[in-house]
Amino acid sequence: MNKSINILIVEDNVLIADDMQMILEDMGYNVSANVTSYEKAIEVLKNESIDLALLDIQLATDKSGIDIGRYIRENLDIPFVFVTSNSDKETVNNAKNVKPNGYLVKPFQEKDLFTTIEITMSNFQETEKSELNSNSSKSLLKKINFCKRQPLI
């Protein structure tokens, strides 16, 4: 997989965010932005080319990572992964409602982060190809005129 993807990190714990950025950059990924709040995340998503968002669920603001995920799902066509220490049933159910492309529970190891990103990006690209092929087939069928052939007797 091409590692030159632009990643947005949304994490309100600066130590964790900086550590995650260092790990990602050491792996060869490009961290476009590392922000701590919903508002800053939305600003980055509106103004920069982001390929993947890594979102903490619990942020130190009124809006959560789930709210950012909802914004992405409704307005953008990029994958996002929740990277969170919250794995209780209620949080997971709330997260499922916005259909994340992945869910990584902290603390995690570097290989877990790498694997999650690679699988997420691969699955997302395959889904996009599949949807593109499906849309091409549908538009081709719209252009074809079908006529009923009379039996030869």
Please name the defining characteristics of this protein.
single chain; 153 residues; alpha/beta; 5-stranded parallel β-sheet; 5 helices; 5 strands; 50% helix; 16% strand; globular
Question: Could you give a quick summary of the protein structure above?
Answer:
By secondary structure, the protein is of the alpha/beta class. 50% of the residues lie in helices and 16% in strands. Helix 2 runs parallel beside helix 3 (65-75).
Through-space gap between termini: 59 Å
Strand content: 15-25%
Residue runs with pLDDT of under 50 for 5 or more positions? none
Strand order of the largest sheet: 2-1-3-4-5
Question: Major β-sheet, in short?
Answer: 5 strands, parallel
Over all CA atoms, what is the radius of gyration? Answer: 20 Å
Shape: globular
What order do the helices and strands follow?
A: EHEHEHEHEH
Number of helices: 5
Mean pLDDT: 87
Class based on secondary structure composition and strand pairing: alpha/beta
Helix content: 40-55%
Q: How many beta strands in the DSSP annotation?
A: 5
- Quaternary state of this entry equals single chain
